[in-house]
Amino acid sequence: MSNSLSQAASSDNRRIFRIRFKRALLTQLLQRRRLRSDDVRLVCPVPDDVPPQVIGPILAGLSRAEVIRKGEFKSSARAAAHCRPLPEWHLNNRRKAAALLARLPEVGQE
């Protein structure tokens, strides 16, 4: 595969992962009202070709849109995170979360 095709595939994988992660996050929050990114990663693992740093901007964007809000910090249970403290995210606006979830396309598992 040429480099430009590889980059395009990687870009598509990132876009698809961001949508899947956001859908999983919103779905879980509408059910549970609070969670950590680790909880979402259990049902929506980060693919090998997608850097895990894409999760931060997803959470920040939802926070800026006042869909979620940051709560207290708790240690990550993932070994790769080395017990790093992660914020617990709380559902801030159920109506906005449901509307956003309804607008997000459903994308298949890669």
Characterise this structure.
This protein is of the alpha+beta class. The chain has a single domain (3-103), classed as Arc Repressor Mutant, subunit A (Orthogonal Bundle), CATH 1.10.10.10. It contains four helices and three strands, in the order αβααββα. It has helices spanning 3-32, 37-43, 55-64, 94-103; strands spanning 34-35, 68-75, 85-91. Strands 1-3-2 form a three-stranded antiparallel beta sheet. Helix 1 (3-32) runs antiparallel to helix 4. The longest helix has 30 residues, at 3-32. The radius of gyration is 15 Å and the shape is globular. The two termini are 18 Å apart. The model has no long low-confidence stretch (mean pLDDT 90).
Task: Record the SSE blueprint.
Elements: H1 3-32, E1 34-35, H2 37-43, H3 55-64, E2 68-75, E3 85-91, H4 94-103
Antiparallel strand pairs: 1-3, 2-3
Helix pairs in contact: 1-2, 1-4
Summarize it.
Helix 1 packs across helix 2 and helix 1 packs antiparallel against helix 4. The protein contains four helices and three strands.
